[in-house]
Amino acid sequence: MTTLEQDQTALDELYSDFSAANLIPLWTTRSDLMPLSPRPAAVPYVWRWSELYPLAQRSGDLVPVGRGGERRAIALANPGLPGRPYATPTLWAAIQYLGPRETAPSHHHTQTAFRFVIDGEGVWTNVEGDPVAMRRGDLLLTPSWAFHEHQNTSDRPMAWIDGLDIPLVQQLDAGFFEFGPDKPGTTATPDRSRNERLWGHPGLRPIGAADQPSSPLMAYRWAHTDAALTAQLELADEGYPTTLEPGHAGVRYSNPTTGGDALVTMRTEFHRLRAGVRTAPRRIVGSAVWQVFDGEATVTLGEDRFTVKKGDLFAVPSWCEHSIEASTQADLFRFSDEPVYDALGLTRLAQQAVEGREVR
Amino acid sequence: MTTLEQDQTALDELYSDFSAANLIPLWTTRSDLMPLSPRPAAVPYVWRWSELYPLAQRSGDLVPVGRGGERRAIALANPGLPGRPYATPTLWAAIQYLGPRETAPSHHHTQTAFRFVIDGEGVWTNVEGDPVAMRRGDLLLTPSWAFHEHQNTSDRPMAWIDGLDIPLVQQLDAGFFEFGPDKPGTTATPDRSRNERLWGHPGLRPIGAADQPSSPLMAYRWAHTDAALTAQLELADEGYPTTLEPGHAGVRYSNPTTGGDALVTMRTEFHRLRAGVRTAPRRIVGSAVWQVFDGEATVTLGEDRFTVKKGDLFAVPSWCEHSIEASTQADLFRFSDEPVYDALGLTRLAQQAVEGREVR
Amino acid sequence: MTTLEQDQTALDELYSDFSAANLIPLWTTRSDLMPLSPRPAAVPYVWRWSELYPLAQRSGDLVPVGRGGERRAIALANPGLPGRPYATPTLWAAIQYLGPRETAPSHHHTQTAFRFVIDGEGVWTNVEGDPVAMRRGDLLLTPSWAFHEHQNTSDRPMAWIDGLDIPLVQQLDAGFFEFGPDKPGTTATPDRSRNERLWGHPGLRPIGAADQPSSPLMAYRWAHTDAALTAQLELADEGYPTTLEPGHAGVRYSNPTTGGDALVTMRTEFHRLRAGVRTAPRRIVGSAVWQVFDGEATVTLGEDRFTVKKGDLFAVPSWCEHSIEASTQADLFRFSDEPVYDALGLTRLAQQAVEGREVR
Amino acid sequence: MTTLEQDQTALDELYSDFSAANLIPLWTTRSDLMPLSPRPAAVPYVWRWSELYPLAQRSGDLVPVGRGGERRAIALANPGLPGRPYATPTLWAAIQYLGPRETAPSHHHTQTAFRFVIDGEGVWTNVEGDPVAMRRGDLLLTPSWAFHEHQNTSDRPMAWIDGLDIPLVQQLDAGFFEFGPDKPGTTATPDRSRNERLWGHPGLRPIGAADQPSSPLMAYRWAHTDAALTAQLELADEGYPTTLEPGHAGVRYSNPTTGGDALVTMRTEFHRLRAGVRTAPRRIVGSAVWQVFDGEATVTLGEDRFTVKKGDLFAVPSWCEHSIEASTQADLFRFSDEPVYDALGLTRLAQQAVEGREVR
User: Fold this and answer.
1) In Gene Ontology terms, what is one molecular function of this protein (chains A, B, C, D) (predicted)?
2) Which residue among A39, A68, A174 places its CB closest to the CB of C285?
3) Are A295 and A310 spatial neighbours (Cβ–Cβ below 8 Å)?
């Protein structure tokens, strides 16, 4: 037996003993564990509304909503994360479908959630007993541990998207879940929820109200979002460059008690691009899911290019260069895990320099 | 010469030597310097709008507005602080009067300012070149070091109140002041200022806008304030006790980038009392100035009782027990120096327990 | 074909179409995705120093340290996370072994790291060019993105444990890594590093030094840790109950610029139990790794009981009830991912009430 | 009567009516109220230890320490603030003198205090019952509302300086004061106080201890201060410019639970200048008091120049340009009101650029 063979034998034995002792050496795994830059398993991907919505409809015919399954929600599963219902490693995104007069039962969980409505109306989500109307263009929050149930008060089905931090909370083993009462706590269908009546006044807060980690304002109405975006673009036209980039307006949904993100673990934003505008190519650490609310655009995600239109959703993995070019005026909802990276000091951004940006 | 006399002589000499050496002993001054509880020199006091406004009018006839004097503002001088134009030891409050077509010239200063409008319209305050309409019920901010000028575009005079932290900044020797251009930077009279168009959308902030110490939203319109107060009282009627006390609603003007006070050194609030409601007697460390916006009330300030109505202003010194009883529905604007005490760990509050208070 | 069969066929088709469209329904996965309470895949586990150290020694004979593999570090692989070199879902823990006169080359990465020394001396870790001696009982930090290399200046091997947030950063796709120069930047072996000379004075900070997310003090010496623990127990004996529990002292390594955790993503602590003391059973959300520094103890982790002694390491998964009973006086080093949960609002703690706890 | 005369009469009447109505116009007072830059009434001034100490001694002979007067403290009275025992508009500074075996009785107050010892030993200050030895070079804290008493256990008198925020708290009407027991709560004279035993370990904090607004470490010993300054200068000599300026080292006393100032309302620092070093001329908003601990220096305060030596104190008013030139190595203690300005957004600094400053 030569020295080299002896060495190899000794090494084989060593690795076998590592394995038996539940040990794994760094020197054979370093480049995978600690790559030079992020190598996400998740891939850039587009889910088409034209495919999603009919599948949701078919589910509506075949699958009842009820206790246990809890929601008729169908999750986007990133092909790079096979077998997992994760749009990205941290974000869960689904289409939820509620048939005429149906109710999704009450529960709460430590996972943070929101709903964004691409179309329709007639459903109220009761958050801690406060009925919140859901209508086209609205963002509705369900903070961690808030009881919630949904009821469709109309004779038509309604679908929307749900965003949650399920993958993050699962990886952190931080999920708690409890069922609520089986019967809806309220069947009221007010035009305006109590949280909006209390908190929906710009810059005004009830005296004595404590700061809260998640926004106490839990409904962000389309009319306000639309007005804010319109104003940004008009101000830029008037010579006050308050947009993100020329022709690219954007608002962040925020918590009026802190000014920070509306939700603790997810960032929620709405973007408007004028026809013909192309955003500066950009990479950030962390992942995002976008949904086209209106218009058409071409999205470049790394090496891939996709044409997207109303309802289409796409996932942007960490550190994937991305850019959006609007064919028509394009309105897009976006959510991401950026607050997690901000909180942990892991934020990184690379962006082609943009002229004229200034927000006062 | 007896021992006692010797001692007294020695003491006299000692005190005389102290004086010569610019020294003052504690043991003779302790009880004044460090009282058992605050002994403000400022006194509870009411200034009547019926007296203020005519004096402002007479000033309008006799005193030009111009460079040097800068503003036709007449300050409330607390009788307990003789010779000083201070409403309280930290707060300056004045009626400002601008005649038809008059302009108050541009300047900026480290002192923080706001305007609150009890009546009238037609004046625009240009803050950093952004023209802000002033109308009944509005609160308009002028953060520290922001250039500002006022112009009356109408054929009628207009008066409002100014609040500043002049006494505080003077005691801290922190005042800087610079004159701006003599001519107005803009004569535009837009209905809505740029800061409102950018920031006046509930819970929405421009992506990329940095946090700011003072609110970037610099106009708080009456319609919003009124709606917020109305909603609080209605919610309480519906069984959701979101008011400060039964029948007592209140909003704080806040900075949407932080959720904190709209201004760094002054707290600004608006209170509404239903007819017949009496607020729980309350003492706080720090002083405040209130103005009746509408209605009538009886104010108890320490041992004093005053009946107040629209436009009347009153000063509440530190630690002075106060309570307000509404004869009619009463709307009151309030500003105070509480952020100073919060920041310095000096806040103290004594309040008779109140049932049913809860703000979510 | 019966209705039921038809339905089943339709359902099968639906699920097949989901799969083809990269979709996964919630109703079949809800209980796994959103359990009633955390169900960690990671298991409670003990790695024995008596097994670890000889394997590290054998690696020292067989495996060179060099560029690419970078470190002769052997990671604890939780049996519940098969194939992954993760002690817990968020924490990487390893024994690192450096032979006489060996050097581990320079690199930096966004992953945060520390070293804790159970025995030995003679190695200096150069952090951003600042040589830091490593000796028994010391905690040495390597903040995110700080260049570091290790050199053994002695004729004897040295081993210690490394803790990193590799699993967390990998799941977040936030890892960046760069190689440094191949040759050590310095071969100096000062007794005290520059960061200690600048920052190692209790309660004193250099004027003008900015706050930093990670501690600028990067060496926490055993003499200080030992003295702090000794004092806590003595103070308790004198009637000032400053311990965590009777007979249980504990210190947290902190960042002198903020008072917070020494590292951004990991908490580091040292615990001392008097002989006979048993800690109150406790569950927390988040995972931890402990190492016995000295003494013997019995550890209860969920249903399992282990006897541990000097050098042994054990993993505590999320929400696993755990308690430690000291047979002799027992000193234990602990690190955890708690700052992540604190930052994301996911902290939960269940602890049997403990008498007499008070820290001033 | 001419028009001019009529006008003047009308104006006189107006001003008289203002006065009667407790009103003061801005236009006649603006330049005093809102100067172009701070115009402090306080003046630069030096108090000589050679004058102070003998006066304190004479007080020791003539004036008993006891209930009511509370302390044999003699305050520096800035000649620009006649009749007031204020070193600056916000800071109170005094020499306190305690004869052999004397006791200063227990009390507490919302005013924040500290002691700095220029010479001597033998006195213990009991802070909330924790006896704290006072020795040359030590800084000892008395946070707001902490009960404290002083006792001289030796046969020799001892003197030190007291710093308090009395003027600030008085202007804010925020002072509360209560007498404690007449008899000392403890006569123990431990070498090390309990707070030091619990908190005096660099970078280590008791697990479970909450953050506190004032430092829970209440004794900062000279040996640590001296070592920190020595290290800064040595590091600079070695090529690591960690000093404030070449030859100018400085430490700030900090709160280990937050990293911020040791006290809420006052900044405390220690500076060391090498012989021959002259600090860059500097202006800041806010005032400070310095005491020479050792050595000799020439101080330039605005237009004035003073030579100072051990024990001498000098006041630096707001925005007064100042510079210190060391004749010998000079050690100086400094306290200021800077935290107030930082908290209120009023900080301003003008400093001649300095080469080579860098603190890591």
Assistant:
1) oxidoreductase activity, acting on single donors with incorporation of molecular oxygen, incorporation of two atoms of oxygen
2) A174
3) yes
Pairwise CB contact (< 8 Å): C18 & A47: no
Query: Cβ of B51 and D21 within 8 Å?
Result: yes
Please tell me the distance from the alpha carbon of residue B196 to that of residue A92, in angstroms, as a whole number. Answer: 35
User: From the CB coordinates, do chains A and D have 3 or more pairs under 8 Å?
Assistant: no
Q: Is the ipTM of this complex over 0.90?
A: yes
Q: Which residue of A has its CA nearest to C78?
A: A22
CB proximity B344 to D under 8 Å: yes
**Are the C-beta atoms of B314 and B87 separated by less than 8 Å?**
no
Question: H-helix or E-strand containing B290?
Answer: strand B288-294
Query: Which three-class secondary structure state does DSSP give residue D139?
Result: strand
Choose among B352, C172, D300, D305: nearest CA to A172.
Answer: C172
3-state secondary structure of D76: strand
pLDDT digits (tens, 9 = 90+) for A284-313: 999 999 999 999 999 999 999 999 999 999
Spatial contact of C297 and C330, defined as CB atoms under 8 Å apart: yes
Tally the C-alpha atoms within 13 A of residue B9's C-alpha that lie toward its C-beta. 6
pLDDT at B6: 82
Instruction: Record the tokens describing residue A313, joined without a space.
Output: 């959703």
Q: Do residues C282 and C349 touch, judged by C-beta distance below 8 A?
A: yes
Domains parsed from chain B with CATH numbers: 45-177+215-351 (2.60.120.10)
Spatial neighbors of B277 by CB under 8 A, at least 6 apart, are B245, B246, B247, B248, B325, B326
Element (H, E) at B310: none
Q: Which helix or strand (DSSP H or E) is residue D224 part of?
A: helix D222-237
CB of B336 within 8 Å of a chain D CB? The answer is: no
